[in-house]
Amino acid sequence: MKTRLLLTLPAALLAGNVLADTAKPTRLEEVIVTAPLMAEPLTIVTDPKAPRQPVPAHDGADYLKNIPGFSVIRKGGTDGDPVLRGMAASRINILLDGENILGGCGNRMDPPTAYVFPESYDRITVIKGPQTVLYGPGNSAGTVLFERSVKRFDPAGWKFNGSLTAGSFGRNDQVADLRGGNPDFYFQGTGTRSDSGDYQDGAGNTVHSAFTRWSTSGALGWTPDANTRVELTGIQSDGEAAYGDRTMDGVKFKRDNVGLKFEKSKISSLLDKLEANLYYNYVDHVMDNYSLRPVAGAAAKMVSNPDRETTGGRAAATLKFGDATQSVVGVDFQANKHTLRSAMGAMADSYSSRNRVEDANIRNHGLFGEVTHYLNQSDKLVAGLRADRWNAQDKRATLSIGTGMAAATVANPTANKERSDTLVSGFGRFERDLAGMPATVYAGVGHTERFPDYWEMISATKESATTLSAFDSRPEKTNQLDVGVVYNSGKLSASVSGFYSKINDYLMVQSNYVKASLTGMGSRTATIVRNVDATTWGGEAGIAYALSEVWKVDAALSYVHGDNDTDGTALAQMPPLEGRLGLGYDNKLWSVGALWRLVSEQTRYDLNKGNIVGQDLGKSGGFGIFSLNGSYRPKKGVLVSGGVDNLFDKTYAEFISRGGAMVSGYDQTTRINEPGRTLWLKLNVALD
Ligand SMILES: [Cu+2]
């Protein structure tokens, strides 16, 4: 009875796509994803290959933005920072095919999602709240998994997926994914390229935002039987991006990756599955103030070249204790080495001949166990526990206090200091399928302890309130209650998820903090990290209703409220109330749809406070954005879609977006404005 409407849900669509990897016919989805619905408690699955509106930058953050509860801190055209329920950066655990990649830029040009080329993945899964321990530490707000899924080719076969996108402001994307094999071996080769010029906001002001990104990835798999898989993968990607919110642009985002996976299932009645992976990620990032914008002269040139090497791995066993109880136990680890080199003026051109100097070394070993137990036909218990052993070393001999030419070099009070912590996280959740109704209710409590990240301890010379180094910032402790309901009947799908969170030692970043000058005469301002206590609550609701065989309406709502209990103020960087209304007609041959996104003003703010990505700039106004989309499916495996985003060319900015910087040749704005009217056309082709 769930069948017809469910077919229009992204989760179900995706399941279709995953199966299509082998013998089943490929099905391309004509539906434009406006707001993916929660199909099971706390979990949202969406298909990165499906067209969506507004047309996203080809990076991970923009693809998350249309999931209710997510927002993006905009910096330019791409590489924004995703935020879930007001929680940014390391509070969302983002894994790329099971691997950590944490970015190299001290000024946060490259969140993990900057290394995501969405259409090279088969599935995006979001798990809200601290309600799993399986994927590593740090998911106080949630977990995001970008995953590939290549099925064994039995019988032998191949499959091609590709897309072309063209849009306003010179936007053009090309994606090709070829995979094939026989029962024993398979291969996959994927290439993506995305390119855009500067976009214009609704008022016609050009925003310094052009970007080019590309990726190539390959996989070789060995599947000697239906239950065994060994896979070797490699990725190279790079890009450049203009940033309208700062004085530098990203001119290199080079990633080199190699990964090895092993998976064996149905080993015995007790040991259901064994999986292990090992990976190496290297990020080489360059930013400067002269390649993508005019510079005052050779003397004013500045370039910075950080890199980060991350090695990690995970091993887990799935154990079955009868039909009612299953558990996953395992270990994981990651080790990060970060270095920095920079140059100014006449030395800028030869920065690459300078030595890289290590500034931080951060590693973690984790141990985890999660158990699912069915109490009866309708009731389920899920619980997990993990322990993390963290170690961090501050390798900076000196600190640079102040900016640019005015910077002073001083001794680092925490030079060569090492700190270690054992942090514990856990959760428990009860789920019940309601009798006589296609609905599930759930309630869970979770506790996570988050070790401060590179940006909270080291980068861009974060200070503490009392010293020149924030290296000793305390770990952040989140205690959260998650409750909700998921309903799926023939015509109606709906979900509501709510949360209440008490965060002790919330790692808050505060800019323009007034301190005594280094000489003791007068004052200066610094960016500091403070541990404060915070409370947040809110939730998301979504509904989709089939008016008839071909007409559908959907709506989504999200809200978060945050308090800084230590300062007695609003918690900074909380997005305002947001709603989305969609109406669609779809007769399987062609479709049309309309999306109306409504965002309220935000008057609760706390100037200069926030997170490692951005701080509050003041209040923001509300806005409503109307967009139209359509699609046509001339034959099996071909989908043409298109749309007009921001039809009425409204000038607006998201509350949490970064402030506009002074860039020569561009108008400075309070915040980085969102794109004005944007036309786009996309062609998806799937062959097998
Ligand atoms: Cu950078």
Write the layout of secondary structure elements.
Blueprint lengths: L2 H4 L3 H10 L23 E4 L13 H5 L5 E4 L7 E4 L2 E2 L3 E5 L26 E6 L13 E6 L9 E11 L3 E11 L3 E12 L14 E12 L5 E14 L7 E17 L5 E18 L13 E3 L2 E15 L3 E16 L1 E3 L12 E18 L4 E16 L3 E4 L6 E4 L6 E16 L5 E12 L3 H4 L18 E13 L3 E25 L6 E24 L4 E14 L4 E2 L7 E9 L3 E10 L9 E2 L12 E10 L5 E8 L32 E10 L1
Parallel strand pairs: 5-7
Antiparallel strand pairs: 1-6, 2-3, 3-4, 6-7, 8-9, 8-35, 9-10, 10-11, 11-12, 12-13, 13-14, 14-15, 14-16, 15-18, 16-17, 17-19, 19-20, 20-23, 21-22, 23-24, 24-25, 25-26, 26-27, 26-32, 27-28, 28-29, 28-30, 30-31, 31-33, 33-34, 34-35
Please describe what this structure looks like.
- With 688 residues, this protein is mainly beta.
- It has one domain (3-687): Beta Barrel (Maltoporin, Chain A).
- It has helices at residues 3-6, 10-19, 60-64, 454-457, and strands spanning 43-46, 70-73, 81-84, 87-88, 92-96, 123-128, 142-147, 157-167, 171-181, 185-196, 211-222, 228-241, 249-265, 271-288, 302-304, 307-321, 325-340, 342-344, 357-374, 379-394, 398-401, 408-411, 418-433, 439-450, 476-488, 492-516, 523-546, 551-564, 569-570, 578-586, 590-599, 609-610, 623-632, 638-645, 678-687.
- It starts with a helix and ends with a strand.
- Bound molecules: copper (II) ion (CU).
- Copper (II) ion binds at residues 105, 107, 109, 250, 285, 287.
